[in-house]
């Protein structure tokens, strides 16, 4: 393994260990020694990549706005739906993503690092504004309001569903949320063409190539069947 | 002041002090001494009412499902909307309410005390199930799904809006959320009669009598103009 490749892998191991520990203990109670124990690597290796707990938390949050599995669609509204469904599918499977929500709702961590919600709102707004220009949305639909409210609604649906005894499946919940909202914002001709199936994100991820993360949002060209 | 009246007042002072401290520090970092300092009452008085930090947190959560300002309406959907708007109006003004959200999103506190979300979901479900029976909802609308998703959406919209730099007004946000969702779930004849104005909760509270808290949900008869 090349030196640089090993460094990338080591960095990733620390981020994932830190994410798990932040997720379990919260930011305040998370300690470097527990993170080291989880990562099973040396303190020296850690400090080469991250000089403090703060740097680890920032590293976790930096990984949180991700568009893996995303690919261009006929309708911009579909791309917006895809972002939300993909994140719902990946979150319970990836500690880095659940830790970033945990850090965002933790007021101490939030005051130190802020949250990634504004980035998600901006990403949604870009897609919805184009959708509006293309006539996919109803006249009265305001892209900025919808973008902001849906990032909130998505986050709360995740929090509440994860706390309920029967723990409803997050992708199913987000799909139901779109079923409630889309009739009020998209034009009927587009509405009938949209796919909000809970099985969609798994299919999108299977079709995506690994190198297709974030930059692909504006440049991606993965084939869609 | 009668002895019992004084005891009720003292208990309330401790709950509000605890709520402020939980809200600022989180459950783990909150300490009895800071709560005492805030309440400006003696340790003996505290222990007469609450034997531990756990008991204080439980007391705060017990106050969190509240229907002050709620009164019977022509449409059950309107009563459901009123619950959400009233809470949105009161939350930024009442530390007991914001602390209960803080305790619900804090995983440590949540594992100790669970959350009040199931109660809110049940309250919403009762109203929506009756609305459905009365023909206020569209055929495909499922009261259980809508009740669950809206409690989540409301919570997340509160969390995200409170974190944004421009801090949009919570009542305005919740009103916009209903504007997105109602066209997809209520029948058109009812939709036109619903009031989701951000100024509604303030008016409802002004009309409510103080003794009209929780029990009024099923028995209330406050006059509506």
UniProtKB/TrEMBL annotation, chains A, B:
Record-annotated HTH tetR-type domain positions: 8-68
Q: Which UniProt keywords apply?
A: DNA-binding, Transcription, Transcription regulation
Q: Which domain of life is it from?
A: Bacteria
Stretches with biased composition (Basic and acidic residues): 203-212
Q: Where is this region: Disordered?
A: 203-225
GO molecular function terms listed in the Swiss-Prot or TrEMBL record: DNA-binding transcription factor activity; transcription cis-regulatory region binding
Give the DNA-binding residues. 31-50
Return the protein name: TetR family transcriptional regulator
Recorded source organism is: Streptomyces capillispiralis
